[in-house]
Write a structure and sequence with these properties.
The protein is mostly helical and about 475 residues long. Helix content is about 55%, strand content about 5%. Strand 1 and strand 2 form a beta hairpin. It starts with a helix and ends in a 5-residue tail after the last helix. About 20% of the residues are buried.
Amino acid sequence: MSFRPRTRSMFITSHNSQQNSTRSVSARSLCQRTQAGYTNRWQLAGASGSDMLGQAQVQRAEEFGDKLADRKILSADPMALHWHEGATSCPQFILPRLVHPLSASRCTRLCKDVTWSSKLDSPAEQFNILSRSVTQNAKPDAVLECLGVRWELHCSVLSGSEKLSEMYTNSKRQRDVQLQERAVIGKESRASKSTCGRGLAYRKWHLSGPLILRLPVTDASINKEALSFALRTLYDPEERPNEWGETVLSTAALLGISNLFQKCLKEMLTNISSSTVCSFHRVSCKFKETILQRACERWLELFLVIELSCHIKLRDLPFDLLLKTLLSPRLFTSNEYEVLRAVLYWLYLQLNPFRETLPAHSTVITFFSKETAVFLEQPQGQKCITIFQALRMHGITEWQHLQELQDIRVLPESWLLHILSNHYHTLYSGGDMAVTDFSKQAIRNQCAALKPSASMAFTFSSKLLKWANQIHTASPLRG
C-alpha cells in the first residue's frame, strides 16, 4: 500500500522538476540579449512587432546604405525568425551597409544640385555653387578680396563689371611687368641657382596663380548678401535678391554693373509704398536719380495723408521732405484737419523715437495737451514752425476740430486768434474769403486747383444754380 503512493510521489516530483527546468531555460533565453547592427543597441531575443526603433533602423539602413550589401549583420527586424539559446547556428540576414549620418549628410551636400541654393547657405557658398555650375568647375582667373571673403571670378564674366574689369586689367599689367623682371633676373642668376632657386620657385608659383583683386568698401549699406547677389548676376542675369533697395543699388554702383543698377531702379520705381518711400527717396538723393526722387515725392503728395500717416514708417520721413510735400498744391486730402492730424502724428514720433507702434489719436492729443508751455514757443519746437505755417488753418472749420486746436498746447495764442478772426471775417462777409495767393490759400478738399480759370467759375455757378433749383422745387412753401 505504501509502495504506490511513493512511486506516484516520485513521478510527480520528477515531472515538476523537469517543468521547472524547462521554465528556467525559456526564461533565461528570453532574457538573453543580442547585439543588433552597428548601432550598438541591444535587443531581447523575443522582440515583438511593436519594436518601432528596430524598424526605423532597418529603414534607415535601406535608405543610406550601399546596395552591394558586402556585410552581413544580425537583423533587428521584428518579423525575422528568432532562435533559442541552444541553436547551433544563427540565421544571417543580408542588409545594406550602414552609413554614418554625418558622412551621409556630407555626401548628400556634395552631390546635391548646384543650381539650388539653400537659405542656410552663406552668401559666399551661394556664389560658389552658382559660379562653379556655370563654369563647370573651371579654375578661377582672379580672386576678389572684399568684406573679408575671397570670391573666385572668371574672365568670361568680368566684362559685365566696369570696376572689376579695370582692376583685372591693371593687375594683369602689373603681373606682366613682374614676369619680365623675373625673366631678366633669371638670366642673371643662372650661375647662382643654389642661392636664388627657392625664391624664384616661390615667385614663379605666385605669378602663375589667379590674380588677387582687393576692393575696399566704405559704404556701410553694402553687405555680403548684396555683394554675393551682384556677383551672381554676372554668371546668371536672372538671379533675384530678397529685396530691392539701397544695398543692391549701392553694390551695383560700387562694382560698376550698369545693367543691375538700372534694373534695381526700375524695380524700386514699381515698389514704392509706405514702408519703402522714405528709404527710396534717400537713395535717390544719394545717387542723384531725379526720376526716382520725383516718383517718391509724387507718391507722398497722393498718399501722405491716407496711407503713410497710418504707418509707423512715418517717423522716417525727413523734415525737408515733409515740408516740401505740405507746400505742394497737389497734396491730396479730404480736408485740412487730416493734414494737421498727420503732422501731429509725425511730431509725436519724432519726440518718441523708440516707439515701435503707431499710437492712437487720443494718445497723441493727450501727449500735447498735458504740456504747460506752448510747443512752438520752446527751443525744441522753433524748427517746426515752418511745418505748421505750411498748413492752411483757415480750412479747419468744424467746431470739434477748432476746440481740439485750443486744447493741444502746440500753437501760440496769436495763431489761434488769427484763425478765429479769419473765420469771423468770412462769416461777416457772407462767406467770401480774402485770397491773395490762390495756390497757397485754396482750401484742400480731395484735390486742389493750381490756378482759377473762367471754366472753373462757370462750372461752380452752374452747380450752384442747379442746387438752388432743387431746393426751390422741394420746398413746401413754393408758390
